[in-house]
Design the sequence.
């Protein structure tokens, strides 16, 4: 395997964690979710960080976490949906591994995230928030080495596509 890490990016609800865990298990690598990494380092939840510190402070912590995590190797790393918004994060990801972007249809994302109280960016009108964030980020994932639509593909099918692409 010529890649040091596999980094999974994508909008919330596209399956980054499920795919990342399955891929790590398949490869015998470690799985790291950067949101969980940040929560454990800070001793609080992402929602609370957004509320108490604001999104800019959270995004700074996220950048530091991505850089620290990607110093390792043989990892499948799932990032938060907005991690790609900062250029330094995108550059770091490209330098430290193979980047896979998961995309999904808006209706699929809405169905997957509408009941999740822990997602600070979709509080309120979930449908409106998802559509406006998708529009704002429509090219944010274009830098990835591989883009996969997770709307109808199973986790196993996505893992197979990634493994085929990296071999």
Sequence:
């Amino acid at each position: 395997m010529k890649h040091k890490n596999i980094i999974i990016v994508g909008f919330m609800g596209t399956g980054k964690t499920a795919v990342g865990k399955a891929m790590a298990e398949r490869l015998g690598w470690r799985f790291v979710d950067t949101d969980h990494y940040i929560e454990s380092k800070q001793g609080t939840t992402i929602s609370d960080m957004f509320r108490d510190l604001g999104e800019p402070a959270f995004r700074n912590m996220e950048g530091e976490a991505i850089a620290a995590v990607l110093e390792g190797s043989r990892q499948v790393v799932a990032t938060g949906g907005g991690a790609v918004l900062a250029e330094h994060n995108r550059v770091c990801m490209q330098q430290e591994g193979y980047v896979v972007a998961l995309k999904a249809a808006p209706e699929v994302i809405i169905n997957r995230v509408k009941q999740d109280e822990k997602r600070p960016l979709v509080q309120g009108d979930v449908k409106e928030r998802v559509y406006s964030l998708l529009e704002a980020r429509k090219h944010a994932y274009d830098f990835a080495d591989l883009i996969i639509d997770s709307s109808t593909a199973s986790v196993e099918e996505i893992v197979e596509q990634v493994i085929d692409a990296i071999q």
